[in-house]
């Protein structure tokens, strides 16, 4: 991406009692938002005759079209946890690897540890409830026009030059906001 580095504010929590994931993320200049999604939005198709080994576990392939991208996931029935990275869950085993078809995004487990330590939220209460598509559109607008937005919001006191070129090859994990 020509040296452009974006820092993420993305956090995903999963409530298995309600079958809902909650995503917390940046939504623009100083804007933080969150939205809920039911687990059922991911429609997995298991390919039982396709296997590979990840971290010493035999994994089975599953595919899904999810929010604008086609994903291939590898899950291990040996680990009976219906979870995985990011928003992924719902397969009969832990997802140890997932990649989208263009190779731009990939999640790969590099180790597994068991812990009894509590996990505490790392987000704060400054997040505003938003729609998923609105949040992604706002963030895309900010990423594509951040210098202009900062210049306008400071009355021209801060000017970082022209905006970065609009990203056409690489995009967010979800692309159906367009």
Automatic annotation (TrEMBL):
This is GLPGLI family protein. It comes from the Bacteria. It comes from Muribaculum gordoncarteri. Pfam families: Porph_ging.
């Amino acid at each position: 991406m020509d040296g452009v580095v974006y820092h993420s504010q993305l956090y995903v929590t999963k409530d298995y009692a309600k079958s809902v994931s909650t995503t917390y993320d940046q939504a623009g200049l100083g804007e933080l938002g969150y939205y809920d999604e039911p687990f059922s939005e991911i429609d997995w198709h298991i390919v039982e005759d396709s296997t590979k080994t990840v971290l010493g576990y035999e994994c089975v392939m599953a595919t899904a079209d999810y929010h604008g991208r086609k994903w291939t996931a590898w899950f291990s029935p040996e680990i009976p946890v219906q979870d995985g990275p990011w928003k992924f869950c719902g397969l009969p085993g832990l997802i140890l690897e997932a990649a989208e078809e263009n190779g731009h995004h990939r999640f790969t487990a590099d180790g597994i540890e068991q812990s009894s330590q509590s996990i505490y939220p790392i987000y704060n209460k400054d997040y505003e409830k938003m729609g998923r598509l609105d949040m992604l559109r706002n963030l895309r607008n900010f990423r594509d026009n951040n210098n202009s937005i900062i210049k306008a919001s400071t009355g021209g006191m801060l000017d970082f030059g022209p905006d970065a070129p609009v990203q056409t090859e690489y995009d967010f994990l979800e692309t159906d906001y367009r």
